[in-house]
Amino acid sequence: MASVAVRVPQELSARVPVEQREPGRDRDGVRLLVSRGTEVSHHAFGELPGLLRAGDLLVVNTSPTLAAAVDGRIGHTRVVVHFSTRGDDGRWAVELREPDGRGTTRARAGGGGGGAPAPAPAAAGGPAGTKVRLPGGARLVLEEPLSARGERLWWARVSRAEVPGLLREYGRPIRYSYTERDQPLSVYQTVFALPSGDGTGSAEMPSAARPFTARLVAELVSRGVQFAPVTLHTGVASAESHEPPYPERFAVPEASARLINAARAGGGRVVAVGTTAVRAVESAAGADGVVRARTGWTDLVVTPERGVRVVEGLLTGLHEPEASHLLMLEAVAGRAAIDRGYEAAVRGRYLWHEFGDVHLLLP
Fold this sequence. Notes:
Helix content: 10-25%
Structural class: alpha+beta
Mean pLDDT: 92
Number of helices: 8
Strand order of the largest sheet: 2-1-16-15-13-3-11-12-14
Largest sheet: 9 strands, mixed
Distance between the termini: 22 Å
Order of helices and strands: HEEHEEEEEEEEHHEEHEHEEHHE
Strand content: 25-35%
Shape: globular
Low-confidence stretches: 111-123
Radius of gyration: 20 Å
């Protein structure tokens, strides 16, 4: 079971980034909870260089965040399209949501609109053939559910527009109800983000890396900590049902595979920055624990039963108690460490979600 036995008070949701909560602070002004097994200590994120050792290696995700939310209409009904993942055939996996009147969205109670009959709630994304009018004259047509697991995400074709250009012109970052207001896309980009040649990226920010600044990266490098870039384009998470992740596109370059293997051989610790980096690296690791360059799609779900082959530490945000990500944390650090860490985070009034504080899990 993925949940931890804590209740997170609503006031512990980070509603705006730290640099807006506390003017004068930079992104690295968040707090850092450190778990070494069940031993917990409290730090500022700027202390990270002193918590790592020369020879340690941080695996970072270079995926850029997309302005993935676009307003549309089905008949006269307003919807918000969340663009999740680009398929190899040019289609996009999308989630249709309804505006909630507060600048964010909620799950649709039923599809239809414009005279079409509403399907059952389980098929709120569909039915197949549903047409959505998008800004600039673009059209989107739902074709089939992405997975037999459910009908939240659908493969769709967009005509009369290229999706990357559509997102650049009309999109905005996906925003959840605990946040206070819309933010510019720059707020959702990490210092490691690199533009991709085909305009793809992550529907949601690889947020564990958000607190890093160029200054902090330079200090880590000066102390002998290395960085291995990988890419995993993360899709739209389920805000309601916390389902496990769908297949996602990833790449582990040859140079990064060599760095990871060399660090392990030399006694350095491989610490993933974010659950996306864990998924990418573990997808490129053989049963022998050797990482090889790989590019493609991964459907790997890291669980305590599967375990991890390469990653020894994890820097991650604080996840909701029922989130499926907690299984991955448990695979890296063990259930007792996660329970103890989350109890300490609630007691210590740490802030949750993508603009919140971070948790470093070390062996």
